[in-house]
Amino acid sequence: MSIEPVRSEAELREIVAEPAKAIANKAASRIDAESRRFIEASPFCLLATTGADGTVDVSPRGDPPGSVLVFEDGRSIALPDRKGNRRLDSMRNILRNDRVGMLFVVPGVGETLRLNGRAQLVREAPFFERMTVQGKPPALAILIEVEELFLHCGKAFLRSSLWDPQTWPAKDSLPSAARIAKSQTNSRVPEAVFKAALNLDYKHNQY
After folding, report:
1. Which are the contacts of 110, defined by CB distance < 8 A and separation ≥ 6?
2. Using 50, 70 and 90 to split pLDDT, how confident is the model at 199?
3. 3-state DSSP assignment of residue 112
4. What is the DSSP secondary structure assignment for residue 135, as one 8-state letter?
5. pLDDT tens-digit map of 154-196
6. Euclidean distance between CA atoms 82 and 197, whole angstroms
7. Residue of 88, 91, 106 whose CA lies nearest to 34
8. N or C: which end of the chain has fewer CB within 10 A?
9. Which among 178, 175, 176, 158 is positioned nearest to 167, based on CA atoms?
């Protein structure tokens, strides 16, 4: 297979023109009132972190709307960390490189909010009470100082028809999570065992 790589920004700009000035300069350094409403309505976001060696990780985060706290000055947010697989990929990365990126999604809405900033891990704070779900506060939270915030257009959602149920594949046409886990680990353990373990974890290990 023959490929032709792009090796410089100048070469890249030969292919893609410069953006309009308003778009190039659209990033804000704080969260405004309307962006706050969007974040507080978002039940799902993606958190990108980078390790000391430059490896990148993206982690999905989901909670009831309003669980991500936006502080009054619009300069910081706090993201609760819920129970997971205990690999702590995002957490370990933040301890080594505090720069993070986030993408906030609202179901049915094509536009997203992108946020970049610096993060620190918090084990105790007064705002933990506001993050309590089902009577359980998080064991940890990620406190992020906002450096950049901007709206991302909905073209990716339009092209993918992500919110159109008629385009969604039938569930029985896809491999189950249990089957994928078995395949990735090349395990001889029966698929049913993986499925039972996942279902048990989903039922008892959310908060």
Report:
1. 153, 154, 155, 157, 158, 163
2. very high
3. strand
4. T
5. 999 999 999 999 999 999 999 999 999 999 999 999 999 999 9
6. 19
7. 106
8. N
9. 158
Q: Cα–Cα distance between 41 and 171 in angstroms, integer? A: 28
- For the record, the structure tokens of 70 come out as 């936006």
Residue 1: predicted pLDDT: 87
The Cβ of residue 77 has, within 10 Å, a number of other Cβ atoms equal to 23
Helix (H, G, I), strand (E, B) or coil at 142: strand
Tokens representing 189? 């353990």
Q: CB count, 10 Å around CB of 58?
A: 12
> Are the CB atoms for 85 and 59 separated by under 8 Å?
no
Specify the pTM.
0.94
- Please check whether residue 45 is in contact with residue 104, taking contact to mean a CB–CB distance below 8 angstroms: yes
- How many angstroms separate the most distant Cα atoms in the chain? 57
